[in-house]
Amino acid sequence: MTDQLINHGIVAFATFFATVGPIDVAAMFAALTLANSVPERRATAVKATLVASGILLMFALAGRALLDYMGITFAALQTSGGLLLLLIGIDMVLAKHSGITSTTDEEEMEAARSPDVAVFPIALPLIAGPGAIGAVILLMGGAEGDLPRQGAVLAALGAVLLITFIAMLVATQIQRLLGVTGLNVITRVMGVLLTALAVQFIFNGLANSGLFS
Q: Which of 32, 57, 97, 185 has its CB surrounded by the most CB atoms within 10 Å?
């Protein structure tokens, strides 16, 4: 039981780390807050982390009820969520940014004109983007009725959000240390793992759909 719980937590952590992308968030954070003072950057990081945490926690606790209300089966979510995560994983392996886990050019232009970038675009969609929201609903739904497993998912989410917050605080140093090549290497490795997890979600969704029984 303990081993299964640890494995579930590791899978959740890897999924959240890939979909949230703390290193990518830090790089964008550094670019968006370049003209800000250190206290202003710290306040922005705190606000963005709190807002994103609230959004993801809301979907973690109420996501399954929302699906039931809309008449969406969990098997459908597993399949569609797996496809979404697969697209994200492919983008990460190719070191591309399609707007699923990053901002579009239009969003970056709008953010550049905004005096406060904490809520948009850092909290949403950079941290709490479609991939992260889909992942938290999938993982919490898959552990429904199992409080220890759900606790492991929430702990993994909290750990990734904490890492993201710390990464934003030291964003400039991370950029200087890793460079573009280092950032892409990390992104590609996490993309391979996420792709495998996404395919497993798709397999589970198809198996649970009853279409092949």
A: 32
Euclidean distance between CA atoms 170 and 27, whole angstroms: 10
Q: What is the pTM of this model?
A: 0.84
CB 200 within 8 A of CB 89: no
Instruction: Report how far residue 112's alpha carbon sits from residue 39's, in angstroms, rounded to the nearest whole number.
Output: 19
Q: Which two tokens stand for residue 54?
A: 């609230």
Query: Amino acid letter at 181?
Result: T
- Say how far apart CA 14 and CA 26 lie, in whole Å: 18
CA distance 128 to 145: 25
pLDDT at site 121: 86
Q: Any residues with CB less than 8 A from the CB of 48 and at least 6 apart, and which? A: 29, 117, 118, 119, 122, 123, 127, 168
pLDDT tops 60 at residue 163: yes
Give which of 126, 132, 96 is closest to 32, Cα–Cα.
126
Residues 6 or more apart whose Cβ sits within 8 Å of residue 112: 32
Task: Supply 70's token pair.
Answer: 């809309």
Q: How many CB atoms lie within 10 A of CB 131?
A: 27
Per-residue pLDDT, 112: 58
C-alpha to C-alpha distance for 113 and 108, rounded to whole angstroms: 9
Sequence-ordered list of residues with C-beta below 8 angstroms from that of 170, at least 6 positions apart, any chain: 26
Reading the block at residue 204, the tokens are 């589970």
- Mean pLDDT lowest for which of 43-57, 87-101, 103-117? 103-117
Tell me the CA distances in angstroms from 149 to 6, 26, 40, 143, 174, one per residue in order. 9, 29, 37, 6, 33
